[in-house]
Design goal:
The complex is a heterodimer of chains A (about 325) and B (about 325).
Chain A lengths: L16 E7 L7 H10 L9 E6 L14 H13 L4 E6 L7 H7 L2 H5 L6 E3 L5 E5 L9 E5 H5 L2 E5 L1 E5 L3 E3 L11 H4 L4 H5 L2 H11 L4 E11 L7 E11 L2 H11 L8 H9 L8 E5 L2 H4 L27
Chain B lengths: L19 H18 L16 H15 L5 H13 L19 H8 L6 H13 L7 H8 L26 H13 L9 H14 L13 E2 L2 E2 L4 H10 L7 H13 L6 H13 L11 H8 L5 H12 L16
Helix pairs in contact in B: 1-13, 2-3, 2-4, 2-13, 4-5, 4-7, 7-8, 7-9, 9-10, 9-11, 11-13
């Protein structure tokens, strides 16, 4: 059973979540081996599974600073095939621009992942299915969602490590906004903003729930993300079988307190773990890779006041 | 093969149509794809074999009609029927047949049904729905509240101008506003509701207000947190088409310049097709350094997107102007 069909379980009944942090200095290095070794830690049963990789391709990006890097996407695709998956699709529904092909060309995805006519799914224009919402965190009662995202055996959220000018941070959970089809809700998917971004993130992730998350934190984005922020080299890839735990870990890497990110705090009650003691941490320690990210004034409350009175030095 | 090629065989066939090679591409690839992708219910999905949806059906119909003119192909007759049957009781069109809520697709549906003589009532109902569908971000109450909001500097837009949202109960955005204006512009006066003129004026003002500082449009956020938004090709093309009756206005001039300058950098066939339609509508030449449609098709097969294939057919193979209302005489630049 994939995560989308699983019942929601209160945090206190959930098993420990597993997160692995790996150092990756740049996109030129051999990423497939690194990802392969990291995924082996999770013993994922991928034999004959269909997989959808959902990167964050938010807009035209000739400088390669705002989207999940194609090298990471291509390497993950190769690894899932190596692990026995029968089909690994790449799917995204960009929020601001309906020319999806222009976006994937601007990030040079074809150069890294090969011909896309049969491997890339534009989730904005996929066939849709009516899905009643489970959590009713927002005022939305139902959403029409892409059949590809609902039908695969294994859904992987692959965001970039970024701050976000409306939601605070955009990671594995916020990345799932991209499965909501523009062909039903427009560009941008404004109905989600009217429903409340924080609450809509919960509703979407309860029904289009990622089975796994891989965060591209090799170069992230700080400040006025997700588009107009400043690139921030962080040198990490973060993996996990619980998107909430992965996002909480990424927040800690960014010097932010996940409990002060509204939607993450709520997600911690039903969708996954944000408490550090409920997350089995492997690979690099958070302290060894922590890179305090600058945030907009509106999100200063997220900044971690950590052990020993540590303040995120980049909040100003 | 490219439009910049000086070879006689690759000169444009007419002001509206592409080069011989491009017209041949429409005949041998574009139109056969559209014809073969029509579903038994008369509609088109976004991809061959996918469920029929109103929006791609409208664009496939436009392409078939304009490329077959003056004939009305049998496929179009079945397409009209699909569009008529997809209309909701309140006059609006949904984005998918199962949905019970109308949306921006109402404008392209009205527009395409104007070509079908039995659809006047359906069009009138659709236009009436459009006139009654006000965006929620600019209600009197919200405008009053916005005066006291500490966040009003984040998105400095004039919210007394009102266009259309993608879906009811949301904010005004550039593309749905442009679609509604285009539908109004194509419609004979006797079908337009009395409120249409007021909506048109407000919507045109809204589009001009939302232009990015250096020209061009994105989805509708010209400035966020004091940072200028980057214009995008598709919203710019639609906004310019919707405002084409005022070619001398500063916003049009700046945005046309931006579009012409950026055609060379276009990376997607949808953007390329719409920029071609837009520059043609303004009587502008096609830049010599524009990318080639055929190369785009060879690259990713347009991701099998029917809507993009339809826009490409309209841009390269339409036998009559895409928009019946052109620029005022003597205004071509």
């Amino acid at each position: 059973m994939n995560a989308r069909n699983a019942a929601l379980v209160p945090s206190f009944q959930r098993p420990l979540s597993r997160v692995v942090i790996r150092r990756a200095a740049n996109y030129e290095q051999e990423l497939a081996s690194l990802i392969y070794e990291s995924l082996l830690e999770f013993k994922l049963p991928m034999k004959n599974k269909t997989v959808l990789l959902k990167p964050n391709l938010v807009g035209l990006d000739p400088l390669g600073i705002m989207n999940t890097h194609p090298a990471v996407i291509a390497a993950a695709r190769e690894v899932f095939l190596r692990l026995g998956a029968s089909q690994v699709l790449i799917g995204e529904g960009p929020a601001m621009d309906r020319d999806t092909e222009a976006i994937i060309e601007s990030v040079r995805l074809r150069e890294f992942a090969g011909p896309l006519a049969r491997t890339f799914v534009d989730l904005n224009v996929d066939d849709v299915e009516r899905v009643p919402l489970k959590t009713h965190a927002s005022r939305l009662k139902e959403l029409y969602l892409p059949k590809t995202a609902l039908g695969v055996d294994f859904l992987v959220s692959m965001p970039k490590l970024k701050t976000h000018h409306w939601a605070g941070v955009t990671l594995s959970l916020k990345n799932m906004f991209g499965v909501v089809p523009g062909s039903c809700y427009g560009w941008p998917k404004n109905v989600l903003h009217w429903a409340g971004i924080d609450r809509a993130i919960l509703d979407i992730n309860a029904v289009a729930r990622p089975d796994f998350a891989i965060v591209d934190g090799i170069v992230g984005m700080e400040g006025n993300g997700p588009i107009q922020g400043t690139p921030r080299a962080c040198g990490v890839l973060v993996f996990g079988d619980d998107a909430v735990a992965v996002d909480a870990t990424c927040c800690r890497v960014m010097g932010l307190n996940p409990g002060r990110v509204k939607y993450l705090a709520r997600a911690g009650t039903l969708l996954g773990h944000i408490d550090a003691e409920k997350i089995q941490q492997q690979g690099e320690s958070i302290g060894s890779v922590r890179q305090p990210f600058a945030v907009l004034d509106a999100f200063r409350q997220m900044v971690e006041r950590g052990e020993g009175g540590f303040w995120n030095a980049n909040c100003d | 093969m490219g439009t910049g090629n000086s070879n006689l065989a690759d000169q444009r066939v007419s002001d509206r149509m592409g080069t011989q090679t491009e017209v041949e591409f429409v005949k041998s690839v574009g139109l056969p794809l559209l014809r073969s992708a029509q579903n038994p219910d008369g509609g088109w999905g976004f991809h061959p074999g996918s469920e029929s949806r109103p929006e791609p059906t409208c664009w496939a119909l436009q392409a078939l009609l304009q490329c077959s003119w003056p004939e009305i192909p049998e496929a179009a007759v079945r397409g009209f029927q699909f569009v008529r049957e997809a209309q909701l009781r309140n006059g609006a069109w949904p984005s998918a047949r199962a949905e019970q809520v109308g949306c921006w697709v109402t404008a392209p549906a009205c527009w395409v049904l104007l070509a079908e003589k039995n659809s006047s009532n359906a069009v009138a109902m659709g236009l009436d729905w459009l006139c009654k569908d006000w965006p929620q971000d600019s209600t009197l109450w919200r405008r009053f509240l916005a005066r006291f909001s500490s966040q009003r500097h984040i998105l400095p837009i004039n919210n007394s101008y009102r266009g259309w949202g993608w879906t009811p109960g949301t904010s005004s955005w550039v593309e749905p506003t442009a679609f509604a204006l285009l539908a109004f512009g194509e419609c004979p006066a006797e079908l337009l509701p009395p409120a249409a003129e007021r909506r048109r004026k407000l919507a045109e003002a809204m589009l001009r207000d939302r232009m990015c500082p250096g020209g061009g449009w994105n989805c509708g956020n010209p400035l966020v947190y004091g940072v200028a938004g980057e214009p995008l090709i598709i919203p710019t093309a639609w906004a310019l088409l919707a405002l084409r009756n005022q070619p001398e206005r500063r916003e049009n001039v700046l945005s046309l310049e931006w579009l012409e300058k950026n055609v060379a950098n276009i990376q997607g066939p949808g953007s390329l097709a719409l920029s071609r339609l837009c520059l043609d509508a303004y009587g502008r030449g096609w830049p010599n350094n524009a990318p080639e449609f055929l190369r785009f098709h060879q690259r990713n097969e347009f991701l099998k997107n029917i809507q993009v294939a339809a826009w490409s057919c309209l841009a390269l193979g339409a036998k009559r102007p895409f928009l019946s209302v052109g620029l005022p005489s003597g205004k071509t630049s």
